Amino acid sequence: MKFKNKVILVTGATKNTGVGIASLFIKEGAKVCINGSSKENLDKGAALLNAMGLHDFDQFVADISNTSEVVGMFQAITKKFGRLDILVNNAADQGIGMRFDTMHPDDFLRVLKVNLMGTFQVSQQAAKIMVGQESRGVIINLGSNVSTRAIHDRIAYVTSKGGIDALTKAMATDLADKGIRVNMVAPGYIYTDRWDELSAEVKERRRNNIPLGSEASADDISQAVAFLASDAAKNITGERLVVDGGCSAQHLPEDIDL
Asked: How far, in whole angstroms, is CA 13 from its chain's centroid?
């Protein structure tokens, strides 16, 4: 088992990709801590893991935009395990339906507080633990290909993911001399429960945007995270691994690139 006995925290492990990431590390023998912003949401993530036959994990409730809750979560993790080997910053506010010209500034700030400030302060608390360990640690941020390819009606989300790009590089630079690696996985389309509400036509049109013809699964993203967290990537830091089926490589989808 590649991550046997490693202590790993996955934020936003309440559904979809977060649960997928947690499940991979549990299967690889890690001591996994799952996080959610509320007990209700976290219990849903735990139920999904239990349904997979995975029961060996710990739950930690904390709103990552709330500094005191973040500090409390890390105090609890330290008390139980005494260390943290890997942090996966997966939690995010999707900010769906927010247009630049109509959104309220408070909504813009709310998304940034979760996605950008949350990633910053969770990572800072993790680094404080990691610097005291002989093996130090690894931080993986979940970004998005929208940071370089903006989508409609998601202004706050797009902005926050651009910030994650820059934050990843800055963190990697500041933490390199402490032996802590920081990288980012940038997905494109991922099949989530929101896809279940889409029509067949919309799904087909989305897939036509992808050169490989298929959106990523939670496992696709999890495997990328696991690679960057592993010793196979021990000389990689400050990098952005794009997992989007080739969307970022093409200028236009094939059906209109005539």
From this structure: 9
